[in-house]
Structures are given as structure tokens and as C-alpha cells.
Design goal:
- With about 120 residues, this protein is mainly beta.
- Helices cover about 0% and strands about 50% of the residues.
- The chain is built from no helices and eleven strands.
- The strands form two sheets. Strands 2, 4, 5, 6, 9, 10 and 11 form a seven-stranded mixed β-sheet that branches.
- It is globular, with a radius of gyration of 13 Å.
Length: about 120
């Protein structure tokens, strides 16, 4: 059974940083494309970043490029998202997802809330 559980969210001031984790199980981690996505209040899912299973290339949405860094620890089956210079518009529930870059996703995990506010 595939499980994806995100953690590490919280309340942070604009300009601050957070590091999210996503623990994955039920599939061979480094043979699947995995993504970070987010959902702001009242909006649909927004793709944030992904690691490609074929060549481990990492891709970012323009809205987070240069501020967010995605990484993976294959031994721990865990994804990370380091977020710097956070903005109020980054406020959302952040989830990890298994599937092609930008979807459609086979599995969406349990999310973690990130709130950027003064």
C-alpha cells in the first residue's frame, strides 16, 4: 500500500524558512517520479517541484525557482523541500504526490500546512 506522509509545516514570517519532509512507503522510491504540490485556500492543486525517476533531474515551478530546493534520501525513502525567502502567497497545504511531473498523480499523500504571515 502506497503511503506518503508530509510533515514539517508551521507558521513562519515572510522572508523566513522551513524544511518539509515526506516519508514514502509501499513503492520503490527511486524508480518513481515524485512531486511536491500545494493547495492554497479555495484554489486547486499547484505543482511545485518534482524529481524525475529516469535521471533524477529536479524541476521547479517558476513561482518557487531560486527559493525552494527539493532533495531525496533514497536510503530513507524520504523527500525534502527546503523553502527559503517565504512569501505570504506560499501559504498552502503542501503534499507529496507519486506520478508524472505536473500530473495526473497516482497517489496524493497526507499534507502539512504552511502559513506565511507577519
Amino acid at each position: 500500500q502506497v503511503q506518503l506522509v508530509a510533515s514539517g509545516g508551521g507558521l513562519v514570517q515572510p522572508g523566513g524558512s522551513l524544511r518539509l519532509s515526506c516519508a514514502a512507503s509501499g513503492f520503490t522510491f527511486n524508480t518513481a517520479t515524485v512531486n511536491w504540490v500545494r493547495q492554497a485556500p479555495g484554489k486547486g492543486l499547484e505543482w511545485v517541484s518534482s524529481i524525475n525517476s529516469d535521471d533524477s533531474s529536479i524541476y521547479y515551478a517558476d513561482s518557487v525557482k531560486g527559493r525552494f530546493t527539493m532533495s531525496a534520501d533514497n536510503a530513507k525513502n524520504t523527500l525534502y523541500l527546503s523553502m527559503n525567502r517565504l512569501k505570504p502567497e506560499d501559504t498552502a497545504v503542501y503534499l507529496c504526490a507519486k506520478g508524472p511531473t505536473k500530473g495526473p498523480y497516482q497517489y496524493l499523500g497526507q499534507g502539512t500546512q504552511v502559513t506565511v504571515s507577519a
